């Protein structure tokens, strides 16, 4: 945990009052919650309302990518002053399972109070594993407890957090890359939204770019840009499979109706080609959707033509899930925004220990203001992360762990005041060796 030094008695007193107010809800309480319950912190603080920040009169910044909520702008204060006047409660640690630990603490500086929840996961411990947790179809959403339930993603879940940014106002599908250990590659893009957390075939975690690699054997010139994405890149060609769900019509072409085409491939042959996009129909086979030049290229295919469509991910990871920005790369902070505060979720890797660090920062509450991107990266670096990635935040920020009674419960305070339905999550499993 970070060491702090005081600069001025006045600044320290102000920070102490903030951290005392934040600590009133008690990060160490972390009771065992029934599935889908909100943490007692929310119920115990009736004076707070969803979306309330440290100062409702504060200047508003840009909206969060997924939920469109504007973030409060943090006061411009020298970093040395903020660090010197910062205070922290003693961390409260609990063992979730062998190899998985939960740590909670509060901090405060002249910008306001913050609450942190940290999962430390050691993938080298026998029985511990990380996986993608998603709904039954890519174009669907569910609350994190539902996604982590045995009915959706198998037994053995001991913890998890929300994952990728997603198309919250339309299809609900995630924006980036997703690979499940059991189900394989579910969604991906050739470019954009490819920054991901992944685990390789040897079980080693890494953070980097994980783009789609797709091709058509008989037509190597076809440019495949998307797999089960909320929309096809302009000029590109998207692949849609049964994992997507039912066809979404012109929603996947961003409303574009001219210069589009669909080609349905089944059993390695073209069985249908049309200039109109169907909606609400089951996908039986591989559906190719083109826009502009992509549609023109698809228009040269004829019914009955042989077509072998293949896809995978660069680097061949065993599992992968995207975020939007790399926070830390090879020990260096890569983000620059130190003004806009939101609830945040991040994942990082400590190369010295091999541990995976999963952090959530509560925000939009009077007792926890959220964090800027620079603050998030700095916290991850202080915790030991050599690489770190920003996952979806805002009202999506949710962390769940298994309690002493064996049930999964929420340990942070989602800013909506209720559990948001999200596109996917990161699943932490523990299965006793030989069990």
Automatic annotation (TrEMBL):
Q: Give the span(s) annotated as Disordered.
A: 25-73
Q: What Pfam families does the entry give?
A: NAGPA
- Domain Phosphodiester glycosidase, by residue range, is 264-428
Where does the secretion signal sit in this chain? 1-24
Q: Where is the composition biased (Basic and acidic residues)?
A: 32-46
Q: Which UniProt keywords apply?
A: Signal
Superkingdom is Bacteria
Q: Does the keyword Signal apply?
A: yes
Task: Spell out the protein name for this chain.
Answer: Phosphodiester glycosidase domain-containing protein
